[in-house]
Amino acid sequence: MLDQTTPHSIEHEQGLIGSVLYEDDGHLLDEAIRLGVSVSDFYLPLHQDIYSLALELRKDDKPVHEADILELARRKKVQVEVHNLMEIMERTEIASVEHVKRFADTVLEKSKQRQLIRLGQEVAESAREGTPSGEIASYVDKTLQTVCEVGAAEFNIKESVKKVKDALEGEDSTVAIPWGISSYDSSLRSQGMRDGQIHVLAARPGHGKTTLALNIGGRSARDGFPVGVFSLEMGDDELVEKLVCCVAGVDVKRFEDKVQNKDEQARFDLAAEDVSEWPIHINDETNMTPSRLKAVARNWKRKHDIKLLVVDYLQLMKGDDRRAPRHEQVADISRNLKCIAKELRVPIIVLAQLNRECEKENRMPNLSDLRESGAIEQDADTVTFLYSLLKDREPDAPKERLRWVRAKQRAGQSFAEGVFRFQKNIGRIGDFPVA
Fold first, then answer.
1. pTM of this structure
2. Who is most buried in 313, 361, 374, 376, counting CB within 10 A?
3. How far apart are CA 371 and CA 41, in angstroms?
């Protein structure tokens, strides 16, 4: 017995089937397939059977006609009778691609509603059975992605070619968010970070990866781009203190030790007023998982229209399935970060830690030095390392030098290297002033 309270529309299902069978050549059925209509999207079992038979005929490149449907039904012993088809076809006076789309939209929407009801029931049952919340959240997220994929925007080659042409001719209207460091931005293909991209910034501890990410995020927010920061290592108060000290140009440690003078305090207070108006949003939860990150990021996008995300840092994140091997967890985290970048149309700066080998061997890091991060290296659009060598720490070595090397850039000049000025006491990283 079918539940009449479950979302469905018999009229639209009949309209869709009548439309796809209206022309024998199958082009209207092709349109329904293109729109993502599957057998399970129909509520009435009879309609599922008819659509399934039509798909089988189309797959074999045979005419999609009522007589062929009935013949195939008899052969396969499926209960589809002449009067079933007559009832549907009598309602179909005319059919076109527009009719198929209109009926399909409703059929698909009702199908999604039913899937969401089933998902809610499954979640409740799993929770009652004691299934770990992380596993439930991961299942919900994957199911929602599947539900939402149907009816997604179709690729349009004309629009894509125009975007490429505009970008190459310098007329691209898409905004690239710069790092704000000229020597680095000039080496990027777009002079900045673009929507949907993953930018990995990796270093050994104490080499400025959080400082640089905070500098980029702060400059972006100052320039009017809302920024979301996931800080798994530092608390939100500590991050804000570092950011304000950077803007004020005052020594963070003097404030931590409570030995700042009046001038420093005045500069700090003035910077704090400015920073308090910037659109920066910080989440400092330590037990961050891909599902939780996606939920928070979507909320930020909906409420604040964020334009840039920062994740600090990758190796501190946990997979939704904590029983999985660590490399599988990292691969799942990486895949989800790429998905959220594309879904929300924002670039994401992902901080990562390097292993000790490059430090022990006193050399420039390479991609194999990314700790636990083979998957993120594959998904990344750029990978940049911050590092120093033993000679940089010698007494007569130039001060405030921080080496950088970009080991990967998708569809652009991969290798680039240089030196930043790292003013560690005030938390600033940038170019050295031109003499």
1. 0.66
2. 376
3. 44
- Residue 313 has what DSSP assignment? -
**Is 358 within 8 Å of 173 (Cβ atoms)?**
no
**Distances from the Cα of 67 to the Cαs of 10, 16, 82, 166, 345, in angstroms?**
23, 18, 9, 52, 48
What are the C-alpha distances in Å from 281 to residues 175, 222, 226, 352?
21, 13, 8, 21
Q: How far apart are CA 383 and CA 11, in angstroms?
A: 54
Say if CB 267 and CB 306 are below 8 A apart.
no
Exposure letters 333-349 (e unless 16+ CB within 10 A, then b): bbebbbbbbeebebbbb
For residues 255 and 263, the answer to whether their CB atoms sit within 8 Å is no
Distance CA 366, CA 421 (A): 22
For residues 68 and 62, the answer to whether their CB atoms sit within 8 Å is yes
- In contact, 288 and 318? CB cutoff 8 Å: yes
Divide the 435 residues of the chain into consecutive groups of 10 and give the mean pLDDT of each group.
Answer: 75 89 80 85 90 82 78 85 81 82 91 87 84 77 69 52 57 72 84 89 89 92 92 86 88 82 88 89 85 83 91 82 78 86 91 86 84 74 89 83 87 79 88 77
Pick from 385, 420, 423, 388: nearest CA to 184 = 420
- Comparing CA positions, the residue from 208, 227, 204, 146 lying closest to residue 356 is 204
- The phi, psi pair for 410, rounded to 5°, reads -65, 135
Q: Which domains does the chain have, with CATH numbers?
A: 10-149 (1.10.860.10), 175-430 (3.40.50.300)
Q: Which residues on neighbouring strands pair with residue 309, listed in sequence order?
A: 228, 348
